[in-house]
Structures are given as structure tokens and as C-alpha cells.
Amino acid sequence: MTQLPDQPKDLDDLRRISAEFGRDKMHIQGAGGNASIKADNVMWIKASGTLLADAQTRDVFVATDLAQMRTALVNNDLHADKPADFLLSQGCGLRPSIETSLHAAFQQRVVLHTHCIYTLAHAVRQDAQAILAEKLAPFDWAYVDYAKPGANLARSVRNVLAPKTNVIVLGNHGLIVAADSVPEVRALQLEVHEKLSVRPTGKDRVDLDRLRALALNSDYTLPDDDALHQLAIHPKRVTQVVKGSLYPDHVIFCGIAVTALKQGETVPNAARRVMDLGAPAPVWILVPGAGVIVQKGVETSALVMMRCLADVIAHVPPEAELTYLSPEQNSELLNWDAEKYRQQLNAE
Predict the structure, then answer these.
(1) pLDDT digit string (tens) for 81-98?
(2) Once rounded to an integer, what is the mean pLDDT over residues 240-250?
């Protein structure tokens, strides 16, 4: 392996807060989110497909050439979208996060990117910017419309950064906070999270008997997580989630939007309806007014993202108009080699 530069003295502090937020599903879900720290011309960043939750029990950070990454970003070099090209820790078996260029765009030493539920509950709304302007008024913040993670998103963020900007809300994606020390980043993350907090809607009654009857002799079963059922009970909630995809990780791990059972339709017919469109069988199906059934043997990564959607929607008013990823945006995510690599790691 190539000789590595000395690690920053506070990398262990970053590991600690990475694990802290990584274990909290209100901030991070599964392999989502990433963290980084800069030292001279080197940036240590979470590796693709690893979990921030594991930051204190396994080596999830890799060293990258910060100077070269920034040069590629400024010059619109195609290599800016290939983080592995800037890896200094060759032979470690890991790739830098697909969002390495995004972290490089910040001048602050420490950057934390999360998919926190409160942020997503605002970032998927059509009126997101108006609401955020009021709630985030105390911060030096900016909003960036959705773009596929990678160099294009990094350039969009760089274009809105002022010298003191330390909070970025990414439309249909998540939150970034930046500071020159780990404690400052932790405090900023918690403060923004609190400012964006929303009371969840109440829980409705689930029809477990109907769900069991529908799932009988099918490839589907009832989930262990009762919170998932709430997506299917209220008609307006069903409408919100079947209309389209709200953020990238849902598309990657659960497919496009959510399938709902139609009136008089059987579960196998609903699955076939999706497959006839050229898509895989849905990993879950909403039964309007009753609850949710999930594919037998569904991967944990998909279940995690199902719960993420349930939590996001629980914090969005039922009458809110939402912004969805376009068919082209869904397609570029599903056909993205970097995300296929991350899926593979999550399945291992």
C-alpha cells in the first residue's frame, strides 16, 4: 500500500461523532451520508458503501488528494466524477464516497452530510425555500436544487457558497454542515436539526387481518416494523408516495416511487403490473386503508429506506405539494456505476 500522510489529530473525534449520528436514524439511514476532514492538501472522507455508524469499529475513512480534486472540479475535468482517481490509500479495498467532490467544494476543514429526516421533510416540498428561509434565518445558509450526487452537484454548491456559508440544504437530498472543528460541526448539525424539527402526525389503525389474507400464498409478508404501515392508511399519504421518488437513496434501494394495490387487484397481479413495465418486482406494496406488505427476503438496506420514507412522510403535512425526481433523474441513478458499487457493498 502507498505510504499515507499522517492522519489529522482530530480524526478520532470525527469518527466519534460520525458513529453518533450514524446510529441515529433521524440523521442517517443505512449507508447514507458521509463525513470528511481536511489536513493540508489531503482530505479524509468516508468510503463508499461503508456505514458512518461503524466509524469507531472499522476503518471507514480513506485519504484523497484534495488539491487535485479541487483542480479537477474547477476545470470541469471528467475525473472530478471519479473519486477513486484521487485515492491516496491505494490497496485498501475501498473507494472514496461518491460525494467526495462535494466535500472538496468547502473551505472549512470538517464537513458532515446527512439525510436527516427533518431536513428531508422540508427539502421534498414545493414550498421548501420559503419555509426554510424563515426557520434557518439565524444561519449563513443556502439552498441548492436537486442534482445527481457528484461533480455537478458539487459545482452547484460551490456556486452558492459565500465565505461564511456553513449550512446547505440540498433539494430532495439532505443537509450539509461545515466548520473548522469537529465540535463546531456537531453543534451546528444539532442546532439545524432542532430548528427544522416538525411534530409527526398521529398514527392510524392498521388492518392486520386484511394484510395477512392478501399476503397469503404470495411472495410478500408483513413487515416487522409497524411504522411502515402508516404510509398506506391515509389516502393523501398514499397519493404522496405513489406519485414518484422523493430522494436518491430511495430509488437506489427500493426502486422508483411506491406501488399501491388497486381496488380488486391481487398481490401477484400488482407485482406483475410493475414487472410488465420492465421493472423488478416491487420490494413492498401499499394496501390503501390497511397497511404495507414487503417482499419475502427483502434486503435490510431496502427496509431501512422504507422506514426512512415512512419517517419523512410522517413529518410532512398530508396536504403538502411535493417535488419528485423526474423520470430522467430516476434513470440516471439506476444506471449509475458508482451506486451499483454501493449496492453491492451493502448486500455483502
Answers:
(1) 999 999 997 667 899 999
(2) 97
Tell me the β-bridge partners of 38.
Answer: 43
CA distances to 64, 76, 212, 217, 241 from 220, rounded to whole Å, are 44, 47, 9, 8, 20
Neighbouring CB atoms inside 10 A of 85's CB total 17
Determine whether 150 is exposed, middle or buried from the number of CB atoms within 10 Å of its CB (0-12, 13-18, 19+).
Answer: buried
Cell numbers placing 305: 429506506
What cell numbers appear for 335 in the block? 444506471
Nearest to 255 by CA among 264, 246, 263: 246
pLDDT for position 344? 46
Nearest partner of 254 among 306, 183, 320, 187, judged by Cα: 306
Alpha helices in the chain (DSSP H): 11-22, 66-74, 100-104, 117-123, 128-135, 151-160, 182-195, 208-215, 230-233, 235-242, 248-254, 267-275, 300-314, 327-334, 337-347
Distance CA 114, CA 61 (A): 16
> For the whole model, what pTM was predicted?
0.93
- Cell of residue 159, nine digits: 456556486
Q: How confident is the model at residue 4 (pLDDT cuts 50, 70, 90)?
A: confident
CA distance 177 to 332: 26
Which positions ≥6 away from 6 have C-beta within 8 Å? 39
- Pairing, β 141-144 against β 167-170: parallel
Distance in angstroms (rounded) separating the CA atoms of residues 282 and 273: 10
Among candidate residues 303, 300, 298, 254, the one with its CA nearest the CA of residue 279: 254
Query: pLDDT tens for residues 265-322?
Result: 999 999 999 999 999 999 999 999 999 999 999 999 999 999 999 999 999 999 999 9
Give the CA count within 13 Å in the CB-facing half-sphere of 66. Answer: 20
Residue carrying the nine cell digits 444539532: 190
C-alpha grid cell, residue 53: 455508524
What pLDDT digit, counting tens, does each position of 168-207 carry?
999 999 999 999 999 999 999 999 999 999 999 888 999 9
* Residue 322 one-letter amino acid: L
